[in-house]
């Protein structure tokens, strides 16, 4: 039991580290050179919270209309309900010199 | 940290147009990679019950999150610039045009977040 919980924690940690890198990338793009640890951690927490909240909300909208798999409208409703403006999204996507983080490597499935 | 829901005034007026534009935009996301890897976003979405087979939706969410962060960072940068410039003018030491290094601190982040309706209060022992 303790092994599994430890494994889950380390997995979460790996993803959290990638979120950390993502936040740092965004900050670097917007012109900051350095960030102190508490701000970085706050933004990372917010990013994680954002994903969880959008997932939760979109799933609820989806199930409310009797579907199983979320569609674009559900995600849009979730984002708009959270007060996220979708206005400049295309321009933001097309911005120059954007960085891409390498996806994490998948551990091979252990043989049992 | 509390996230309060606010109405976004910019979207309310012409949501039909935005919806149409966004569904076109979704097609472009087919071969686009946001900064946050798909698998990481998908993990957090799956944790909260969102299971989609369409990677474009995941990319859209990743992009929206990134833009949200970017907007906050821009606001914080403006705060930081204003603060440092006022400090520079207060202390009249002429060191010439030294290189500017912007450091993000909670001092700048908290007012920036407040504009988005997010109240960030961290205990001093939080790291």
Automatic annotation (TrEMBL), chain B:
UniProt KW Transcription regulation keyword: yes
Protein location: Nucleus
Transmembrane parts of this sequence: none
Gene Ontology terms: biological process: transcription initiation at RNA polymerase II promoter
Pfam families xrefs: TAF10
Record-stated family: Belongs to the TAF10 family.
Name of the protein: Transcription initiation factor TFIID subunit 10
Species this protein is from: Pieris macdunnoughi
């Amino acid at each position: 039991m303790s092994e599994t919980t430890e494994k889950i924690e380390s997995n979460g940690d790996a993803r959290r580290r990638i979120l950390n890198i993502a936040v740092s990338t965004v900050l670097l793009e917007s012109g900051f050179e350095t960030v102190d640890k508490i701000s970085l951690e706050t933004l990372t927490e917010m990013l994680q919270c954002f994903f969880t909240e959008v997932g939760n909300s979109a799933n609820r909208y989806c199930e409310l209309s009797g579907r199983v798999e979320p569609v674009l409208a559900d995600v849009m409703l979730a984002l708009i309900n959270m007060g996220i403006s979708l206005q400049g999204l295309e321009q933001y996507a097309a911005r120059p010199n954007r960085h891409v983080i390498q996806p994490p490597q998948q551990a091979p499935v252990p043989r049992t | 940290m509390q996230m309060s829901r606010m109405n976004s005034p910019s979207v309310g007026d012409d949501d039909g147009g935005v919806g149409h534009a966004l569904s076109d935009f979704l097609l472009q996301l087919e071969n686009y990679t946001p900064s946050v890897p798909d698998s990481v976003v998908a993990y957090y979405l799956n944790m909260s019950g969102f299971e989609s087979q369409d990677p474009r939706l995941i990319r859209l969410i990743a992009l929206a999150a990134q833009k949200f962060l970017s907007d906050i960072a821009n606001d914080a940068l403006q705060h930081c610039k204003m603060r440092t410039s006022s400090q520079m003018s207060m202390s009249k030491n002429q060191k010439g045009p030294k290189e500017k290094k912007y450091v993000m601190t909670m001092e700048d982040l908290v007012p920036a977040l407040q504009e988005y309706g997010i109240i960030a209060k961290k205990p001093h022992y939080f790291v």
